[in-house]
């Protein structure tokens, strides 16, 4: 019933020096364009929704990451969240905000990228934004973000250790002012703990969220057998959930298969688009689809 449809693997042109995205971690749809961030890269991937060909590379940070696995893990910015922003001064067509997880001191970089062709990223220091969150969470790990009306929401991911899941809420005007350099980084207006439960004895943790038009929002969560935000673990599966306008989780539903879904976005027709983390640098991440009729039947109608 909840088997997602495989659409494609996320390949990139060979001449770009990157054969594919592997650890896809967030997804934003803008029209027929899909922007995908990976947690072990310095760039975004840009793909056509209906174009099966290789995507494009959009560079965010200068330099190169080490090829060796452990060295790369230590050096990467760990981009885990990608948020589409509305029109801003200097970005009439809107912008994308890529955010590091904050799970270590060097993972507190972000980038603001306009949606016009040829736009250059502006690098952001996220330390002032994350400082109050570090005081609240023993193991900070920001994994998703989205705009919901006049609120900007970040999703803190829990794990098997002491870390809990939470929706961190900000007033969008305050966040907007900080992004434009007009105000200091705002404190959260609310930090709401979210109890997701377990899958086969392993704690579920947020991986991404997507706003619906009626004030509700969808999220993805995975059961990854790890006790902290730095080390990887075996993934037992992915669930999707629906949060009502009052901030309460209505229902969770497990996806069939062992997909590790790290990013979600809604298609124009309401289908749920998802990207995966292959957990293997040699393998490409996948783009999946769950039909609107399926997720609505499961999460809204409760079938």
Query: How much strand content do the residues show?
Result: 35-45%
CATH architecture descriptor name: 6 Propeller
**Which regions are unreliable across 5 or more consecutive residues at pLDDT < 50?**
none
Order of helices and strands: EEEEEHEEEEHEEEHEEEEEEEEEH
In short:
The model has no long low-confidence stretch (mean pLDDT 91). The termini are close together. By secondary structure, the chain is mainly beta.
Plain-language structure description:
With 303 residues, the chain is mainly beta. It has a single domain (5-299), classed as Neuraminidase (6 Propeller), CATH 2.120.10. Helix content is 11%, strand content 41%. The protein is built from 4 helices and 21 strands. It has helices at 69-75, 127-136, 172-179, 292-299; strands at 5-9, 24-30, 33-38, 43-48, 56-59, 79-85, 95-100, 109-114, 122-125, 142-148, 151-156, 166-171, 190-193, 198-199, 202-211, 217-224, 235-243, 249-254, 261-266, 272-276, 286-290. It has a 5-stranded antiparallel β-sheet with strand order 14-15-16-17-18, with no helix packed on it. The protein has a 4-stranded antiparallel β-sheet with strand order 1-21-20-19. The relative contact order is 0.17. The mean pLDDT is 91.
Top keywords for this entry?
303 residues; mainly beta; Neuraminidase; five-stranded antiparallel beta sheet; four-stranded antiparallel beta sheet; 4 helices; globular
